[in-house]
User: Fold this.
Amino acid sequence: MRTAIVSQEVQTDDLPLPWNTLLTNYLYKDSSQRQALQIYKKEETVILDTEKTEIIKNEKEEIKEQNENNNTHSKHPPRHSELDSESHSKPQPPNKKGVWIGLGVVALLLIGVFIWQGGKDKPNPIPEKVENIQETVKPKIITETVNGISFKMIEVKSGTFQMGSNSGNNYEKPIHSVTVPTFYMGRTEVTHKQYISFLNAQGVDSNGNYQGKKYVDMDAAVCTVGYKNNRFYFKGSKRAETEDTPMINVTWDKAKAYCAWLSQQTGKTYRLPSESEWEYAARGGNRSKGYKYAGSNNIDKVAWYGYEKSGKQTHQVGTKQPNELGLYDMSGNVSEWCEDKWHDSYRGAPTDGSAWLSGSSSRRILRGGCWYSYAENCRSANRGNNSTVSWFINCGFRVVLEH
Assistant:
């Protein structure tokens, strides 16, 4: 049994004619059309009521006239034939059958108009807002554990973006289209805890050397790593107070050495990001909202920056707001090494997401700005560079895992 919900107002003249309501709802699905039809029906009812009133008025006048004639001829009562003729001459009420036929004709005409309009090209309805499917699905996160220390990698789905900027430095030009394949990127920069684990596992000596190469500058005044009982540990400095701060004083080639060790430990391919991968991820990948900085137009929400603002030091990773992908500190905290060689413009740059390794420069790319950078240098589009063998208190890195 169907259950119908009706309003409290019920028009009684519609009750005997359920087909009329059904036909109207079928032919006029749009509420504005049904409203127009109701107005038309009301006007038609007024016309019929007017005609009925006019007929009754005429009938009363004829009866009055007849009574006057009867009074005049009272001495001669009417014969049955006269009464019959008078009764036949009285106006009759409107023919209901004719009214129904008329309504049927109107209904047929309306059906014809409906069919005729259905064949016309109609404007497309205003589309409903449809959310981007990629925005509703959270990026995939995998957790790696190496030497008892866990870290997370976030999937950066493939996509095409406009790399560079016309509002920054000349070396950020020209803006060009780059298509980046899917990859995973570290949710945070590599921390002291992670890098010290690498130093101990690799067999680096107490002076910070391994196979004739320096992996940590133990003699630096701001060195954050100590050595005791044949193991490295985090001793901290005025630039880094906890082991969960990003590793600093690490050169480009030692960041590469860390990636090689991580690959060996996991059986996967870890490496530094290409410059285009880095910028694509900083901008939010295919979830990008076009922010100036990595995750916001308000740099204070997403970055540790400015010598005084940052308290003259790095900060624990992941304490600011992440970007659209869930990546932390892509703006500020420490500048991050990339694989690419330095070029002073994007003319001739790869468009497939790969690192730009051609050219004669011995310097490598740094991105993101750091704890003492001006806000302008923390933009997602900003570029920097440095020597591969230099130790700096602002340089760190994060890793990429090939998909």
User: Anything to note?
Assistant: Residues 145-189+248-402 form a domain with the paralog of FGE (formylglycine-generating enzyme) fold (CATH 3.90.1580.10).
